[in-house]
Amino acid sequence: MHHIDDLRSAPHPILGKIWFVGAGPGDPELITVKGRKLLEQAGAVLFAGSLVDQAATFYAPADCIIRDSKDMTLEEMTDWLVEQAQHHETVVRLQTGDPGLYGALIEMTRPLTAEGIRWAVVPGVSSAMASMAAAGESMTLPEVTQSVILTRVEGRTPMPPGEDLASLAAHHTTLCIFLSITLLHKVETGLRAAGWPENAPMLVVHKASWPGQERIVRGTLADIKQRCREAGIVSQAMIVASPTLGASDWPDLVRSKLYDPTFTHRFRKAIA
Ligand code: SAH
Predict the structure, then answer these.
(1) pTM above the 0.70 mark?
(2) Among 122, 153, 188, where does a domain finish?
(3) Residue minimizing CA distance to atom 9 of ligand 1
């Protein structure tokens, strides 16, 4: 029979919770308030390479265990998170942008669920949003496009059937193209196959929102590759092709119904 003191002195495993937190696009101030609070109380943080280290070191407590996942496999990451959750109430996996976009989220959460470990996701500002914000552009414009496609071109990860850029670009919506700056020639081929004209405006943003490092390159389908080459942009860049680009300088613009004085909506009565 156990004496009560034996039970008390037995090691008591903490059952911590693992938070997949979106760090935002790079600027440490673009993390959410909730994400920042979790970092401030974290016992351990696993951050995704150089893309988010600043936010981690800014907000995590001095005694927090901070580890870079750059050289780890998915299995090693999961094992590390599980191990830390046995020592800390709050464990953070800090991901760039939003964790649900090209973040291997499900690959990491499935083993946690299988082991009965609690986890949750805190969304983040995606680099797609930050890139458009940097350039002062809008993803949607009335009667121009009301849809946005977040995609990539095929690299080592194959594209599922029907998702080749030529098919997606045929909609002539805003296209935010991730992970493809070294494959700009494929982007161009896809847009041309979908009938985008050579003078279609394009935007490339390198390190959107990174203080002092952000670079914005504007061009057209015909010259964007050359302009990126001249600017030396080879990584961490968002490619945007959109019929909305440059709208600030258009002579005519269809007014958004939301701010049209003759349009009544929930918050405002129309002027008769
Ligand atoms: N989850 C991230 C995307 C990760 S995939 C998000 O929501 O933003 C990595 C790709 O995201 C890069 O190849 C690049 O296309 C884009 N990216 C990430 N951070 C960026 C930034 N600060 N500026 C421009 N593009 C960025």
Answers:
(1) yes
(2) 122
(3) 179
